[in-house]
Predict the 3D structure of the following.
Amino acid sequence: MTFSGVLSMGWKSTDGKRPPTLLVVSAAVVAFASLIPVGYLLIRSLGAGSDWIDIIWRANTAAVFGRTFLLIALVTVISVAVAVPVAWLTVKSNIPLRRVLSVASVLPLVMPSFVMATTVIEMYSPRGVLQGWLSGLGVTRLPDIYGLGGATLVLVLMTYPYVLLTVRGALRRMDPALEEAARAMGYGPIHTFRAVTLPLLRPAIAGGSLLVALYTLSDFGGVALLRYQTFTSTIMIQYQSSIDRTLAAVLSLVLVVIAVLLLLGEGFTRGSGAYHRSTVGAVRSPRRIDLGSWRWLGAAGVGLPVLIGLVIPVGVLVHWLVRGLLNDQQLLPLLIPALNSLYVSLLAAVVTVLAALPIAILAVRFRSGLSRFFERSIYIGFGLPGVVVALSLVFFGINVARPLYQSIWLLIFAYGVLFLPASVGALRSSLLQVNPRVEEAAQSLGRSQWRVIFSVTIPLVMPGALAGGAMVFLLTMKELPATLILSPIGYRTLSSSIWSAASEAFFAKTAAAALLLVVVAGIPTAYLTLRGHGDRADVSEKPLELKEVSR
Amino acid sequence: MRMPWQRKPVAAPIPSAAAAAAAALAIPPLASAETGVIHLQGVECRYPGSDDPVISDFNLLVRPGEFVSILGRSGAGKTTALRVVAGLEQVTDGYVRIGGQLVGSTFMHTPPDQRRIGLVFQDYALFPHLSVAKNVEFGLKDLPAEERSARIAPVLKMVGMSGYESRYVHELSGGQQQRVAIARALAPDPVALLLDEPFSNLDRQLRAALRRDIKKIVAESGATTLLVTHDREEALATSDRIAVMGGGGIEQIGTPEEVYENPVSAAVATLIGPCELIPGVFRGGVVVTEAGVFPTRITTDESIPDGRQVLALMRASELEIEAAREDEQRTATVEQREFEGEFSEYSIRLDSGTLIRVRRRAANGLGVGSRVRVQTRDESKVIVFPA
């Protein structure tokens, strides 16, 4: 028997198919690479010996814990409270400008937290713009924006789209007959919502909430600018201020544990969700409920988060830019950071999608214990905060992969680990919609398994690959902690140069760079949101889904 | 002399029946009437982790140019048998030969891409990212470019899809997709054509029309064909021979007439035509049932001793009814009468509650509720199976 035969013997899939050896090998490499950060962190922390309890104690961990959980709870609850009504209004009601508002309500997704934070401070700080507007009413000082309040505001504005997307997806897929049946049995509209709609939405709400919680746990820029110390910002401070980085490593491991706990908490509702839509197009499009004259109020309700989360921040940036240009103020250099951002993000998108392909193909087409293990191991990036991955790769780079250290490849590696789940998710759902008979047909027409993957499978999952790539591009553009830690010295991207100016409170200087970042990040976001809004029910295209938006 | 811009003359792209037979003989050295184009011997196919094989002790020989249908209930393993031939499933026992060459056994498995089998899937499985022409061209990769393009047109013409070359799959109707799928499968000149429930996704009217068309196309191309279906009409109308599946293997194989006239088991009989089986006792060449006493014939290999419990096969076309006399025993009641033009079809309720159907030419008399005597028509005899 040949070498490859021996190699692939063990991984026959449950339906008896044998994947090409090269596919298995490349998936194994990707899965192994994804496990490096956590694995290395573990080794590193174990090196700290029994001191770690002492270390955790020294860092005043309990207080940070408390603050972090308070923030997570507040942000999650408020995001759900904002997103569920917005989702319902944009899918099920007849509010005016429904389609426009439907797209706009997702767009706050493009705002990086540190940019959102600068504009929030400008607007709502005790002597900010809002105070100026209200001074006529005798308001001389607004409550302090720094701390829990401000951090919650910034994070809610940024994360409610996660819940919105998952809930909206669930509402669209929901069979309207279920609600009609409840109505026919004598349930009023409100009773129907409580008894039928809400329970059916629960998994979607839980899934979206998980994303919100994980994001809140891992955010650095927003909470740091608003001076609210969470676990992540503590780690960053530790990393940047001390020479001994063991403490940062140990705290990172605690962060991993929190993330895993959050994932487990949500896991009960996620379970083995059915991805295959058994009957394509059989679900009728939902009947919209006529709100009568209330529909204008509904539109205003949907418009409010868009106003606060997108229009005002962009307005502030434009205002800064115009003022800066008029006063001939010095702005951040734009060209080099912009090109660097573009380069790094495109590279990350391409590398991540390529790495995701073998994992996704194996997971969907050749189901086995091994392919499930590969898929699970890349989902670790789903729960890992950027800080953790970056720190661990710093240690890894210094001690193991010296040539990679201080090169942009280590940075790309970090993005890959962080955003692989997003692209695997997109490819996976795209692959599930490809009829396996089509691949078998190609094989019966004389192409080997390997050539079928290239001539049939990959062309057919192109929409998924594009969506995954767009997602990774967007996430990379906005990413801050890993970018700060792993960028080679002197290598500036849009996000890192905005951050360094903003952290020294030169907010106005960031205007041009931040606007550019928002616009560039807006392109893939618009593509991703509009994808699901076509009139024809094209099965190969569907809107953003849970696993596609992981950060 | 041929100028450079002129096409290289190509052999008739779609072989006539004779040429196809010759081609089939040329590739597999051993293909002949004895070795068959497709030959399955004692084949068993079992999915990993499952104790029950989907098919077992499956034997089938398809000869060159033959059109064979596998008829069976859904879940009988028909499609698995087809996938075994195509190489999409591996066998766990037995031998699969194509053109006399061993392509599958417990220890070896030739992958589907090396079997030269044309496969038409139930849902067609056309490539949605390719045009009709590119779909047909897909299997011709080993030919030089100009031969490839020279081959597409005649194949599409044969299936009646000329002019659709640049269309995409979603722009075609179900019947058109079906035709393209057949063209795609035939284009590389396969050793055999496999059709998996090819008409099940089409509406009734289109189905009959397309069935005739495909029968013609296949005959024209001379391809050896194996069709899988659960539709008895389809199998009866298209095939040279029908293989009836049951219990994971083939229960009976023969020409449609043979199988219909002489089903070897009650299961085959119910699959091959509408009928009712009623219990009775076999006694000296006749069967005594509650519906009457009928002359019999035996089609199973098993011999049936006197006094044995049997099942009598009641087919509407072989039965007749007459008005019963007042004092007559073994009679039944007319429950329903449907006038269908050439004849009337009667539903007859036996006293035990079983319903049988009887056809009668005479349109008069015998209204609903009348007592009737059931008897065999003309000289026909009732087939009996051991109960």
Summary: Chain A touches chain B through 24 residues (CB under 8 Å). Residues 1-10, 270-283, 533-551 of chain A have pLDDT under 50 and may be disordered.
